[in-house]
C-alpha cells in the first residue's frame, strides 16, 4: 500500500500528465497549493516508487485517471444533522447510490450544467470526504476495514433536487449523475497522514460565503463501518471511489432554499487534504440527436 504521502495527478509544464507526490510548503496541508511534485512511477495500487524527479505543476487533474477508476459509490443521509435538516429519520443501514464514472472531474474543472438540469430548480452542493479503495476487499470486519484504504480526498456531490426527488419517481442516480457532477481531489492523502478519518473539519463555501461547516465525527456510518458494510457479499476493488455523505447546510435544507446558479464558485474543503474550487457553468442548449 502507498509509499506516497499526497498522491496527485497533474499536467506538468512540460505538457505531459503524471502521477506525483505533492510537495507542499512548510506548514501547508492544502494540496491545491502545491506547485511541484515528485513523479511517481509504477502501479499506484501496487508496487510504485516516488522518484527524485521533480516536475512543475501546470494544473491539478482528477486524482485518478479514468482507466484507474472502478466504481463511484455514494452514501446519502450519512450525517446526523443533515438527516435532521432533511426531515428524514436516521437510517438503520447506509443509504447507497452510484454515480457514473463520467461524473468525476478535477479539483479546478467547471461544473457543467446540462440544459436538462436548467429546466427545473434545485441545483445543490454537497461537500464530502472521499475514500479510495487500494486493494481487493471482501467481507472485512470493521476493525480491519481501514487497512484497505488507499487514501482520502474531498469531493462535491453536485445534486439536482427536483430530478433526485420530485421528477421520475425519485431518480437519485439521475439527479446526481450528470457529467462533471463529482469534482474531487485535489489529491489522495495517505492514511499514514490522515490516521483518523472521523476527526476532520469539512466545509463548503459558495462565492466566499461558508454554507456548510461540520466535522466528519457527525457521520452516522464512519468510513470503517461503511467499508465493512459495503464489502459484505460484494468485493470492493482497487480504484473504487466512495463518497461518504454530506453534513448539514445544503441548499435544500435552508429556509429559504438556496440553489446554485450560473457563475457561482463552489469550494469544498477537508482538513488535512485541501480544497476543490469549481465554477458552475450553464451549458448552452443544443438540439438532441435521437
From TrEMBL:
A GO molecular-function descriptor: metal ion binding
Similarity comment: Belongs to the FAH family.
UniProt keywords, alphabetically: Metal-binding
Entry keyword Acyltransferase: no
Matching PANTHER family: ACYLPYRUVASE (PTHR11820), FUMARYLACETOACETATE HYDROLASE FAMILY PROTEIN (AFU_ORTHOLOGUE AFUA_1G02370)-RELATED (PTHR11820:SF112)
Originating organism: Corynascus novoguineensis
Protein name: Fumarylacetoacetase-like protein
SUPFAM superfamilies in the cross-refs: FAH
InterPro entries from the UniProt entry: Fumarylacetoacetase-like_C (IPR011234), Fumarylacetoacetase_C_sf (IPR036663)
Domain Fumarylacetoacetase-like C-terminal: 72-280
GO biological process terms, semicolon-separated: oxaloacetate metabolic process
A Pfam family that the UniProt record links to this protein: FAA_hydrolase
Amino acid at each position: 500500500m502507498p509509499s506516497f504521502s499526497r498522491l496527485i495527478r497533474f499536467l506538468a509544464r512540460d505538457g505531459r500528465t503524471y502521477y506525483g507526490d505533492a510537495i507542499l510548503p512548510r506548514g501547508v496541508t492544502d494540496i491545491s497549493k502545491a506547485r511541484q511534485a515528485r513523479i511517481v512511477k509504477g502501479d499506484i495500487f501496487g508496487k510504485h516508487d516516488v522518484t527524485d524527479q521533480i516536475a512543475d505543476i501546470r494544473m491539478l487533474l482528477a486524482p485518478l485517471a479514468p482507466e484507474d477508476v472502478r466504481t463511484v459509490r455514494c452514501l446519502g443521509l450519512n450525517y446526523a444533522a443533515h438527516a435532521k435538516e432533511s426531515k428524514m429519520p436516521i437510517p438503520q443501514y447506509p443509504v447507497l447510490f452510484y454515480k457514473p464514472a463520467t461524473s468525476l472531474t478535477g479539483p479546478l474543472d467547471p461544473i457543467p450544467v446540462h440544459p436538462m438540469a436548467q429546466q427545473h430548480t434545485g441545483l445543490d452542493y454537497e461537500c464530502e470526504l472521499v475514500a479510495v479503495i487500494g486493494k481487493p476487499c471482501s467481507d472485512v470486519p470493521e476493525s480491519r476495514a481501514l487497512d484497505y484504504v488507499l487514501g482520502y480526498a474531498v469531493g462535491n456531490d453536485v445534486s439536482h433536487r427536483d430530478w433526485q426527488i420530485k421528477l421520475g419517481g425519485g431518480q437519485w442516480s439521475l439527479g446526481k449523475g450528470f457529467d462533471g457532477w463529482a469534482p474531487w481531489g485535489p489529491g489522495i492523502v495517505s492514511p499514514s497522514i490522515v490516521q483518523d478519518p472521523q476527526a476532520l473539519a469539512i466545509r463548503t463555501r459558495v462565492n466566499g460565503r461558508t454554507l456548510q461547516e461540520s466535522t466528519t465525527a457527525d457521520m452516522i456510518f464512519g468510513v470503517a463501518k461503511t467499508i465493512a458494510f459495503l464489502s459484505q457479499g460484494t468485493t470492493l476493488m482497487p480504484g473504487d471511489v466512495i463518497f461518504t455523505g454530506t453534513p448539514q447546510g445544503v441548499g435544500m435544507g435552508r429556509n429559504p432554499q438556496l440553489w446554485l446558479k450560473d457563475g457561482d464558485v463552489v469550494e469544498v474543503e477537508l482538513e488535512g487534504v485541501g480544497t476543490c474550487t469549481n465554477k458552475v457553468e450553464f451549458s448552452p442548449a443544443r438540439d438532441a440527436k435521437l
